[in-house]
From TrEMBL:
It is a multi-pass membrane protein. One of its GO terms (molecular function) is nitrate transmembrane transporter activity. One of its GO terms (cellular component) is membrane. It comes from Sandarakinorhabdus glacialis. This is MFS transporter. It comes from the Bacteria. Pfam families: MFS_1. PANTHER family: HIGH-AFFINITY NITRATE TRANSPORTER 2.3. Residues 30-435 form the Major facilitator superfamily (MFS) profile domain. Keywords: Membrane, Nitrate assimilation, Transmembrane, Transmembrane helix.
Length: 459
């Protein structure tokens, strides 16, 4: 059976450390398999982006049509991210991820058969649902790891997964070039290349269903059937969503994520074409330059989570919010330099610097997510994740309305700098901070003694 469940272990706790080279525990299996699945999803999500110069030539696309395609690529993700978090609370991340991978592969294959602009736009829109994989990824590690390492775990799996976008920027043009070198026509080459991410998604669906479980104790569906107390289970998806939406911190962090992750995926969609159109680079060289931005996710997002966990040891939750503010401000300033870059060399340097701040800010944002409302974790993660895509859509419309891409980047820099104030506005009550400090101290003590802490469920 696809969803054959592991036995319930009511006493298995959250992990207080990340044993990077271990696959022996359910926590580390979830850690590794979730970033692999996320990598495949991001690769598939952005597989078409570096090929847009070829697709533009084949379909004769206008500037507005390209902008519509880029907006469509992230628009539907907003809706799916809103619902996927509560679905994780209700059915567990294992089932949610498996079905997302299976269903998400369909429009990836469909893109290869598109013959008109309208068909291509439809499949590009549908592919955006894959972006909801991020919410499941963050949910899964949030319920598997204790407060002392949850920020690092969330940021690391998110960063390694996000690197799939960078890999797509660099590898997809090479796949097409290899096919053309074998004598395949250019129009057929990019279509055949889309089967690579589609097949990878199907394979990953099997791996996720077979080798992961929802929590350290077992699967949520089985635990609920066994009568175990699962927070949020009685409310159902809508109740969890309403509880998350009633928390003002959720909305402030959604704006912050829109200004960090939203910018990230906007850049992923346009940067290869930007280098081709602005600096007249070849498709392969533009893909390589664009891949630098996505490749930063391999370590930069994790660095943001690690920094958040470290500063929390000294400054608690207030330290996490101050770090996020600083990173977003640096991102905004870096965007201004990128927009003003006059040569390809200065553009790549500026892109690398602002990309570092952007990825770190993404990690620092989701290092805060587990502490907003533990009883509505799925709803909080989904709403904040949706905020990221709203930011990307807004950036897409800004780009469509701007006279030049450079103008768009400069305005975006000022907007991000302004949105950094949302991080400073996130506040926690003394009781909230005291409760979280107690959980953190417990995790640190049990890590020191070689034990683990807590349950795998939101507390």
């Amino acid at each position: 059976m696809l969803f054959a469940s592991p036995a319930i272990n009511a006493i298995e706790p959250k992990a207080t450390r990340i044993d990077l080279f271990s696959f022996s525990t359910p926590q580390m299996r979830a850690f590794h398999i979730t970033w692999m699945a996320f990598f495949v999803c991001f690769f598939a999500w952005f597989a078409a982006a570096p090929l847009m110069p070829l697709i533009k030539a084949e379909f004769g696309l206008s500037k507005d049509q390209i902008a519509n395609i880029n907006i469509a690529a992230v628009a539907v993700t907003i809706l799916v991210r809103l619902v996927i978090g509560p679905l994780c609370d209700r059915f567990g991340p294992r089932r949610a991820y498996t079905w997302l991978l299976l269903l998400g592969a369909l429009p990836v294959f469909g893109l290869a058969f598109a013959q008109t602009y309208e068909a291509f736009l439809f499949f590009r829109l549908a592919i955006g649902a894959i972006g909801a994989s991020f919410v499941i990824t963050q949910y899964h590690t949030s319920v598997m790891f204790a407060p002392n390492v949850v920020g690092t775990a969330n940021a690391t799996v998110g960063g390694w997964g996000n690197a799939g976008g960078g890999a797509a920027q660099s590898l997809m043009p090479l796949v097409v070039a290899a096919m053309i070198g074998l004598g395949v026509e250019q129009a057929f080459g990019w279509r055949a290349a889309m089967f690579v991410p589609g097949v990878a998604m199907l394979a990953m669906a099997f791996v996720y269903a077979r080798y992961t479980q929802d929590t350290p104790q077992g699967d949520i569906v089985d635990m609920r059937a066994a009568g175990m107390d699962i927070h949020g289970g009685k409310k159902g998806g809508w109740g969890i969503f309403k509880q998350a939406a009633a928390n003002y911190r959720t909305w402030l962090l959604a704006i912050a994520y829109g200004a960090s992750f939203g910018v990230e995926i906007f850049i992923q969609n346009i940067v290869a074409s930007y280098y081709v159109d602005t600096f007249e680079l070849s498709l392969a060289n533009a893909g390589f330059a664009a891949g630098i931005f996505g490749g930063l996710a391999l370590f930069a997002r994790a660095l943001g989570g690690i920094a958040s966990d470290r500063i929390a040891l000294l400054k608690g939750l207030d330290g996490r919010t101050l770090l996020l503010f600083t990173l977003m401000l640096g991102e905004g300033i870096g965007l201004l330099f990128f927009g003003h870059a006059a040569t390809v060399t200065t553009a790549i340097i500026a892109m690398t610097v602002f990309g570092l701040f952007t990825h770190m800010a993404c990690g620092a944002t989701y290092a805060l997510v587990p502490f907003v409302d533990r009883k509505a974790l799925g709803g909080v993660a989904g709403l904040i994740g949706a905020g990221g895509n709203i930011g990307a859509v807004a950036a897409g419309f800004l780009n469509k309305a701007s006279a030049t891409p450079q103008d768009c980047l400069i305005v975006l820099g000022y907007v991000v700098a302004g949105c950094s104030l949302c991080a400073l506005a996130v506040r926690f009550s003394p009781a909230h901070k005291s409760a979280e400090r107690a959980l953190l101290d417990e995790a640190l003590e049990l890590r020191r003694t070689g034990a683990a802490v807590g349950t795998g469920l939101p507390a």
